[in-house]
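INTERNAL TRANSFER SHEET
From: sequence group
To: structure group
Subject: Schlafen AlbA-2 domain-containing protein

Please process the attached sequence and return the structure record in the designated field. Keep the field labels unchanged so the import script can parse them.
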Amino acid sequence: MIEIPDDVEQWTYGKIVDLVNEGYDENDILEIKQDVNEDSDRFARSVCAFANTNGGTIIFGIDNNRKKPLHLNDRICGLDDSDQLKRNIIDKIKHIQPSIPIKNLIFRKTNIKLPNKRVIVILKVTPSSRKPHEWNHVFLKRLSDGNEPMDVTEVKQTILESQKNERLLTLLRQEAGLLRYLFEKSKKLLEEDKIRLTTMFLNTIPVDTVKYFMLNQSFLYPVQSTQSLMRILEVVEKMESISKKHSTTNILNGDLKKSLENHIALGLQILIPQGLKHLSELENHLDVKLIPTIETEEYDPLFDKLENPNDNLNDQTSNKS
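Return from structure group:
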């Protein structure tokens, strides 16, 4: 059985052909439509149901009427290409309340071109951060055999889950904001050639907390957000490994110590900008601002002393004299 891609960019003409040849039917995560204007109420209901449940993919440009014995090229009929095509699709669901966030409506970046010069449009609907949504005063859910009204208990439970997810998103924004602060502070220290302080700052990264939000909570967010979270986690783990190496410099002397510190600095010069880049990607995908960590600089003099412990010791010796 063909696997339905989670990422809309993985859809290709070949996968569409396989889908049709296999006789794949609509289910809890897939809807097939011949035209944008074909039963637009059903389309809006499906978008509403997908957003309220586990998300799903809608393919435009396939004649799914099994009662008609059609050739493959006739069944994959496509749509007339137009600059307004995706806008027309969005217009069909504008009466869903509350409105579905645009981040939960993901089109394939380019429509799939067919041999007949027409196109296939792929729309991925992800679980909404604002659910439950209603269409014509009915809250809908998606099942394997289509859309069904939610009962009162399901609506209440969905509201509670949505509120919980909103709180988790706030915590994620705080954690990501703290990471950005630590990355930017470490970058500044590294530019000042303060390797010891840089690794001290990186050792304060709450790796276990980061893993919790980026692994256990990733299902709450769009696919692109999950990818960014995984890349950030990879950077954090690599930086943690590099920071631990710095502790070994305490038992080294001379050129060997300097060589290891240079190696550590080079690794951090590569990883820190990558971490900042992925945090910006996450911010864009979530369509929210990361909560910044306030930099007071109150304790900078103290950290300067930590960076130069010998100077501090000399000061104490002078005072005793």
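Handover comment: The chain is about 50% helix and 10% strand. The domain at 8-150 is CATH 3.30.950.30 (Methyltransferase, Cobalt-precorrin-4 Transmethylase; Domain 2).
Transfer complete.
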